[in-house]
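Collaborator request, handled under Task 6.
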Amino acid sequence: MYTIAGVFEMYEQLLPTKPYSSKKTHASCLEDVRCRLCGHAQESVPHILAGCGAMAQNKYLSRHNMALKVLFFEILRDQDLLEEVPPWYSSVMPKAVYKSEKVEA
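Structure tokens returned to the collaborator:
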């Protein structure tokens, strides 16, 4: 239930970002609505999810690597370098090198 409510809050731009809090409380003390993580752009849901430079250095890279890990394990299985693909949510990370008589990855 909390997940659904959170998704609706994101969709409706109702998360407690600086501009939202400033408009809701009519507080003049929140004149600076720049992102509290990077300090460059206006803080907003789209900025936090896909455009914040501070997040790009770690969270976006981690999300990217986890998505590609699933694809990589599938390719390894197709090439008979793995017998079983670990679940997408597992913390198993690929080894540096996988070898067989025909293929090296």
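The cover message to the collaborator said: "Residues 58 and 85 are 25 Å apart (CA to CA). The radius of gyration is 21 Å. Please let us know whether this matches your experimental observations."
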